[in-house]
Amino acid sequence: MLAADAVPTEKDAVAASRAVKLSEKLRCLVCQNQTIADSNAELAQDLRRQIHEQIAAGRSDDEIVAYMVARYGDFVLYQPPVKSTTVLLWAGPALLVVVGFAGLIHLVRARRAEPEAPPLTAEERDRAARLLAGDGGKDLA
Amino acid sequence: MSKKLLIPLGVFIVLCAFLLVGLWRDPREVPSPLIGKPAPAFTLAQLHEPSKTLGPADLKGQVWLLNVWASWCVSCREEHPLLVGLAKAKLVPIVGLDYKDETAAGKRWLAQHGDPYTVSVVDRDGRVGIDWGVYGVPETFVVDKTGTIRYKQIGPLTAEALEQKILPLIRELQKS
Lengths: 141, 176
Prior knowledge:
The complex is a heterodimer.
Chain A: H1 2-25, H2 42-56, H3 61-72, H4 87-113, H5 122-133
Helix pairs in contact in A: 1-2
Chain B: H1 3-23, E1 44-45, E2 53-54, E3 64-69, H2 74-89, E4 94-99, H3 103-113, E5 119-123, H4 127-131, E6 139-143, E7 149-154, H5 159-175
Parallel strand pairs in B: 3-4, 4-5
Antiparallel strand pairs in B: 1-2, 3-6, 6-7
């Protein structure tokens, strides 16, 4: 008896967590910076209902996502798909890091290649020593 | 001036150009994947004669508009005079999809503001709306003779959109 009761509950829990995961992946088109899991807009509620019904009807996650994309376009996906039109979006940050590092390395190398200041002459060395000793360059006046 | 200094300036100008273009784009307008696709089928009860139904299949062979509206929709009032005017011109059948609305409230609203619709059908729970990718009422679709969606207006119709896009498109589609 107990076991028989437990089975549907477990199934429900799996279905519920699948529904939550799916609704976290989908964008609410009314309040665009929220997923349909977060949003309480009517459309989000309706779409959550759709997800529940479709899970109950035995459709796979991919099928449900495809259903949403067919109606609302890629924009409904909170994580945009990798396509030719979104390559820059996905590769952009990595590209910036690479370009930044290349620039940094170039800069550091250029600095290193600069010739060091020519060594001091004996005269300059004397003057520097006097300045350091404190009787600052009386003879220069 | 050193050429190297021009690089950040160039990057900055390009960035500004992107941002400037972005200013004129409406993030609420999501391109519909349904353009060029067959109009999703439905069979819904008519608002004024619930015993009768209507669906896209009944309109095959003519160019028609589907306008998604509701009595609770504030911006529907904004576009309504344009629809009434369009209905008077009798260019195309205008089908109203009364979206997630109470039947009585819908009828009252049409009685009050004028009824431009050839027929209105009732989408009580919004399922047909989802099939048509509706997310912001009002929305207007142009469907051609073969039953293919050719244009979608998101949000209220404007005189500009009507004259520059929708009417020329309707005329072109009716010729073909």
